[in-house]
Amino acid sequence: MTQIPPISRRQFLNLSSFGLGGGLLSVNSPRTQKIKSLDSIKFALSWKAEAEYGGFYQALATGIYQKHGLDLTIRPVNPQTNSTQLLLGGALEFNMGSSLNIFKAIEQNIPLVTVASMFQKNIQVLLTHPGVGNESLADLIGKPIFISSGARFTYWPVLKQNYGFADNQIRPYNSNVTPFLVDETSAQQGVLTSEPYTIEQKGGFKPIVHLLADAGYNPYSFTITTTRNLVNDNPDLVHRFVDASIRGWYGYLDDPQPGNRLIKRDNPEMTDNLLDYSFRKLKEYDIITSGDAETLGIGAMSDERWKAFFQSTVNLGMVDSGLDYHQAYTLKFVNKGVDYYRNSL
């Protein structure tokens, strides 16, 4: 069994949501000046503005949040931003999370809760060169694999268990694709919507994409996280934010241009080509509307899937078996059905 070193509360705050210190970027509704009757809330992403956050920007650009009585500020983050501390301190109402991080929070008695999952499939991938015999993950046994240090505590234990990988295959990945391009036998980590595009541009070839969601690692990701206090004290506010965000995602998948304009305003380095590529991959792999979301609506979650992921982390020594994983999520704000969300666009 792979054992993960215990993480203290301070380590969780410093590592799982990036270190505190850097400034926050922000973008407010472009529609009007703030209206006093609207509830002002702040929502932190997990990175810079990209297509992966398109539904939130769409809801902002098209006035969906305002229709739900919300004056939203979206805050992209930089690597020095600790959104968990900001959430606990009341500087944010919501941020983005994942199943494993919320388990770690509950282990440390940090009162966070997941209220929706925008993605039904995790977009973490491994990439390989075509035509060299690495057509499947099983072909990678004994070969170099470039992964980040954080991957050792997330999907790497799953790949070791499912495919027989060994730690001596690990090579450090520091967001530089050059080592992968040079070594045709190697594999490299990435996310579906980004690194494959970069490799196509710099390497002149399309890498083989191995979606880890299909390889046994599929936690809920791109989740909406908030505090237990907000869920208990102001459930109406949570309801409105979740509903508006889900409706924004339906609108974005129908026509991403309003959201993309705000993404580019918030992230001047973002290009139309990358936005288009990312959007197409989200739809091609059915990242957002597959699984339970097909009938229950975007943002859907289930007790069964939370239980299955919890048990898998316990089996790998990633989470203590005594954890009350039910504290990590609530279903009261999701699963209302596709028609419910689409009828109010």
UniProtKB/TrEMBL annotation:
InterPro entries: NMT1/THI5, SsuA/THI5, TAT_signal. PROSITE patterns: TAT. PANTHER family: 4-AMINO-5-HYDROXYMETHYL-2-METHYLPYRIMIDINE PHOSPHATE SYNTHASE THI11-RELATED, THIAMINE BIOSYNTHESIS PROTEIN HI_0357-RELATED. Residues 53-257 form the SsuA/THI5-like domain. It holds the Pfam family NMT1. This is Nitrate ABC transporter substrate-binding protein. One of its GO terms (biological process) is thiamine biosynthetic process. SUPFAM superfamilies: Periplasmic binding protein-like II. It comes from Roseofilum reptotaenium AO1-A.
